[in-house]
Amino acid sequence: MTCETMKYDAIVLGGGPTGATAAFEMARRDLKVLLLEKSEFPRFRIGESFLPETYLQLKDMGLEQAFLELPHVEKLGGSFMLGHGQQEPADFWFQNGLVNRNSKSFNIERAPFDAMLLDAARDAGVDVLQSEKVTGITRLEDDDVEIVSTSGVKKARFLIDATGGATVVARHLGSKVKFPELSNVGYFAHFTGVQRNEGDKGGFARIVMCEDAWFWLIPIDERRTSIGVVADHTFAKRVNVPAARFLEWAIKRCPVMAEMCSNAVACEPHELPAGTNHVEADFSYQCKPYAGSGYFLCGDAATFIDPVFSTGVCLGMRSGEDAAKSVAAIIKQGSKASRVRRGFIRRASTSSSPMFKLVRMFYRHQFRELFLFGKGPLSLHGAVLEVLRGNVFPKPRFGVTWRFNLFIFFCWLQRYVNVTPSLEKFWLESGSTESPARTRKSDLGEKEMKLAE
Q: pTM, whole model, 2 decimals?
């Protein structure tokens, strides 16, 4: 029986970490799964910094050894600093969280990591088709899904969308909503010769913060470092720098970045002209509901706000696992589909909500002042670290939740009272601590705040 004539238990769209995990977990539960991936692996992807929760999940999947055989950098925490360099970097160790849970994580080039997960899904019994683009969804109901892809019609009982920013199902349903106030643009490339922290901090992901942009520096192996800058699209348009050269311009304009990258040399796996970078725009959106008749949305196919805390792969793989268990509960255990969907939606919301709150707060200077202070009463910073570790599944513990919300309250209070010392701001647009003539982008509007909850 061919892929065109067989009715599968589930079709998974997308072969990245989210889709491969969903397919792998369903195959482990003896479901017949077809995975369609529009690209040929290996392929270049950004997002090389992972949370400790993902390492635990790989162990649960039995893939720890396969992962350890790939070139990677151990990551024990992160370092945050302001662009002017006048403030000492604030180092955060995952081991200083509130819960006695794994504090080990890693940075890794995405192409081999993604290929490893896709191979694991195939070895588990998943039918994998690459260079297979979905051209239409003709039926989308419980136990009755039909799609059209490059090689023809495919049928299944359920559909799992793990297509990332392509959001195939949400586009079909017209449910994708963008966050105008978080309409950012990312510019990124790989480099050698970048200065690194010494010792156990060598694998730290480093974040350099400006008022109108922020940078990441992620060591992905012994030589190479992933570097990117994320900027508000209106600011990027104002400065009138060619998009393909924005990263080079931004690095030179930021004192901390200019120093760390003084000997950096671009080394993209897919050759780019000298001084140029990749570009990805408008990546803040939400697609509700996260599940409906015949489908489940996972990872970035459901929602994505911002890459600042490297939550994407963690949320994607955990939601892929949850979707797999949900489909298995319906098919294998006879659970009512509507009840299973409600549980999936609830877990997706409760686990992602603190991560989204953290991202939204990041763009407020008051949050940065409290966060960089590095200590506080009632172990409040420990609650923030639990979110940064990804310890929010299926929902955050109560002790984490109330401390985290109290930390956010103090961020609000910092606007009116100096809970911690004030820190001088730095603007990339002016290249100094002097505010540019134009005002920076405002906080999220009321509508966008409600959408992101």
A: 0.92
